[in-house]
Amino acid sequence: MTAALEVRGLTTRFETRKGPVTAVNDVSFSVQPGRIMGLVGESGSGKSVTGFSVLGLIDEPGRVTGGQVLVQGTDLRALPPDALRRMRGSKVSMVFQDPMMTLNPVLRVGDQMAMAVRVHEKMSKRAAWDRARQALETVGIPAPAERLQAYPHQLSGGMRQRVAIAMALLHRPAVIIADEPTTALDVSIQGQILAEVRRLADETGTAIVWVTHDLAVISSLADDISVMYAGRIVESGTAEQVIGSPRHPYTRGLIDSVPSLHEPGAKLPQIPGATPQLANLPSGCPFRPRCAFATEACASPPSPARGAWAPRPVPSSAGGDMTDPLLKIDTVSKRFSRKPGLLGRGIDRITGRSSESTVHALTDVSLEVTRGEVLGIVGESGCGKSTLGRIVAGIYAPTEGAVTLDGTPVARGSDHGIEKLTTRVQMIHQDPFASLNPRMKVGETIAEGPRVHRIVEPARLRARVAELLEQVGLEGAYADRLPHQFSGGQRQRIAIARALAMEPELLVLDEAVASLDVSIQAQVLNLFIDLRRELDLTALFISHDLSVVRHVCDRVAIMYLGRVVELTSAARLYARPMHPYTEALFASVPTLGTGRAAFHPIKGEIPSPLNPPKGCAFHPRCPLAGPRCRIEVPRLAAPETGHSVACHLHDGGTGAAEAAA
Amino acid sequence: MLGYLARRLAQAVVVVFAMSIIVFVGVYAIGNPIDVLIDPGATQEIRAKLIAQYGLDQPLWRQYFTFLANVAQGDLGTSMVYNIPVVDLVFSRLPATLELVFVSVCIATFIGIPAGLYAGYKPGSLAARAIMALSVLGFSVPTFWIGMLLIMAFAVNLGWLPSGGRGDVGSLFGIPTSLATADGWSHVIMPALNLSLFKMGLLIRLTRAGMVEAMQTDYVKFARAQGLPDRQIVFNHVLRNISIPIVTVFGLELGSTLAFAVVTESVFTWPGVGKLIIDSILQLDRPVMVTYLVLVVILFVLINLVVDLVYARLDPRVRLKGKA
């Protein structure tokens, strides 16, 4: 049988000021029809460039310099430009990472799809729309005719990615290159898409190259896996072989960096260093400087010491701890409303309609964090977890309720603005590229807070900055560098140093490791675990990643549409989730080492916080919802000590359970 | 949509009122027109009589309300210098300016946007670099200087085109305009080109910047991955996306050119409103100043309204507030 796609010796170079860089170096692989091949690697490994090279879509200053790309036996590289263009979309197509960006925002979905249909097949506009509608049906989009009339911004992220997949499938191509297509999506939506893609590959016989950094996703989806490092494929085989018995030390290291495989709180075995700059690759094996097996000197066991660290016991009813939390979030609600202006109100009165709209970001959230505890806040996008973090840091004022630190409010002010902000809470943001001022030396950035608030004497500032940098695993001499000279992981360390410089009592980490590669993520998580032990940190750890949260948090609060739906110790939550939403979340998350799993993704999409469902907000997606769930909002109650849940199934009431039965 | 329009029009009325007060106070502050108007040797009695005739002895607020009352009756006053109704005066000059601006905006658009698209599509090419160099000249060399160079070249040395003034007026679809005659065109083309250079430079740079940025976006790459030819990508996908800043600048420029084409009109002795306003300021002709400036405000408000409506048409994400 001819392979759907066979790549032989593909090489892509970029001309840079420092000389040519080989981003894809002699890469070969093949994919049979109906099979899914995972192309795994960290950022900068050349996996995406490989995808673009296959389609001949490398922009200047890059150029594919060698190799063959055979699609059903035809070499794309030997085709003239126009013939190659006609292959794209009809024989090979592509799905991109960010569904918010891949569709043209100013054109109707139907127009875009019809354009893609008619470029390869002559037919009337009406017939093309018809074809587009069928394609949307194939990828499981409800009410496809209406979706065609919509503009991209009217669709959710998951829906847009389905549209993109439908577009890739329009002409039944032999191969689809999918470049991180679920990375930007929530886990429940990711689960739905993965299930859909698996079905499509099986039914249509399309071969799929799935480019990703996420081992867990790929191990549950792919038939075969190739691992890329520094532009080369370092290991390939069936999914079972590569995940189950990896042979290359890099693959081994990658798999070991995944938190879900380890005891909570244990230090993660980490790959030292960072992905090398392609401009100056080490000679020989590029992984050598990071490889534990590389030289005789490193012949001793490869994994770094796994410093055991016992998670703190959850304070139970014992003593004053419980009554004296450091952070107290007391029935906090936050609504963002857009009120119409003077004229608008006049017009509203005339027309009898209201143009005021309100987003219910948080509703009645009460949480407590004791000294030295790390509380995880988990939920999908739009659940209000970041809003909560900002309220705790004093950036937003709550609409109702109060946030106090040791009994004093974190900020004084109202909905209209914050007047005075505490320095005792510090925040670490998701994007280390955006959160550091690119024009300030990192030393100045770190020193700014302590200087303004006179936390450190001016004469000692420099020494203190050096000390902080060393504390987060960097060199003191780095203080004079600018942010762009650092990698993502290093910048996140700098952001942590900046937060620690204020000697805060509480840290708020808002998706602080979400944008990092898994090997770098492991390093930053280890740093956090170390710092926590040394400094006795108290923290709110906001994340969408269940495995990361499990690894570093003592207690976890699960949020859905602005409410806390479950709250308990990490160990208990992962052993026995009680809320149907929590259970469904766990079911959606692909885990490493379980092989190709059947997904049970949550049905439907997250409702809009502009107009949350009545009763329990989760009831439209809940398989166990009863009549009571549609009417009455469940309260957060503790059916067992230390385990609270907001669900009618567990509140001792009979309504939901009976209705479900 | 209707609610939105109602709101915008109500806002416009407020703006026009506010502007009329500012203009009124400002004009009052410039000086007393009587000193300019009458013979310095006139007697005190004649002076007092004239002052009373123009109502200049009244307190400012009363003058303003008299003005408003007259406006309500459709009377914007009479020019102190020409002694004809201001409305007639302004509207006798407006068609000339409209012609000039219309031709210059067309030149700027039909040369500027395609040139910018090309320069953005092939940013490294020689032609693109030449276009960009010319665009810099377009808005950095002073207008009057280029105007004089044009006159030197085409009127004085070559003798191809007249050096100034408006040509014969013909009739096009019943509208009297110099664009209906060949002579009219020969008069309008040079000042219009002169007036368009700045706008052309701006449009080239904006279009190029938008194009360069758009060609890097995922939706363009995605369209390429579907096998769409570049021509279709540029005209069906990119052009509409980059048109918002272009429309914004286009609207602003249109307004300011209509209102203040003064320099070009002076260099080419074009009998438009730009010259009229300068003359009336020099002669402290209050009614003309007030009427003209209020007209300009109305013009700007209308252009902005049209620009906003075009936004909503171009970009579905722009939702007009008040649209239920």
TrEMBL record, chain A:
Presence of keyword ATP-binding: yes
Family matches, as InterPro entries: AAA+_ATPase, ABC_Ni/Peptide_Import, ABC_transporter-like_ATP-bd, ABC_transporter-like_CS, Oligopep_ABC_C, P-loop_NTPase
Pfam families: ABC_tran, oligo_HPY
Membrane topology value: Peripheral membrane protein
PROSITE patterns documented for this protein: ABC_TRANSPORTER_1 (PS00211), ABC_TRANSPORTER_2 (PS50893)
Subcellular location: Cell inner membrane
GO MF annotation list: ATP binding
SUPFAM superfamilies referenced in this protein's UniProt entry, alphabetically: P-loop containing nucleoside triphosphate hydrolases
Domain ABC transporter: 5-255, 327-586
Alphabetically ordered keywords of this record: ATP-binding, Cell membrane, Membrane, Nucleotide-binding, Transport
Domain of life: Bacteria
CDD domains recorded: ABC_NikE_OppD_transporters
Location of region: Disordered: 301-325
NCBIfam families with a match to the protein in the record: oligo_HPY, PRK10419.1, PRK11308.1
Recorded family membership: Belongs to the ABC transporter superfamily.
PANTHER family: DIPEPTIDE TRANSPORT ATP-BINDING PROTEIN DPPD, OLIGOPEPTIDE TRANSPORT ATP-BINDING PROTEIN APPD
Protein name per the record: ABC transporter ATP-binding protein
From TrEMBL, chain B:
Membrane topology: Multi-pass membrane protein
CDD domains in UniProt: TM_PBP2
Keywords assigned: Cell membrane, Membrane, Transmembrane, Transmembrane helix, Transport
Primary location class: membrane
InterPro entries (alphabetical): BPD_transp_1_N, MetI-like, MetI-like_sf
GO cellular component, as recorded: plasma membrane
Transmembrane spans: 12-31, 100-119, 131-156, 188-206, 242-263, 289-311
UniProt superkingdom: Bacteria
GO terms, biological process: transmembrane transport
Keyword Secreted: no
Location of the protein in the cell: Cell membrane
Span of domain ABC transmembrane type-1: 94-311
SUPFAM superfamilies: MetI-like (SSF161098)
Name used for this protein in its record: ABC transporter permease
Protein species of origin: Alloyangia mangrovi
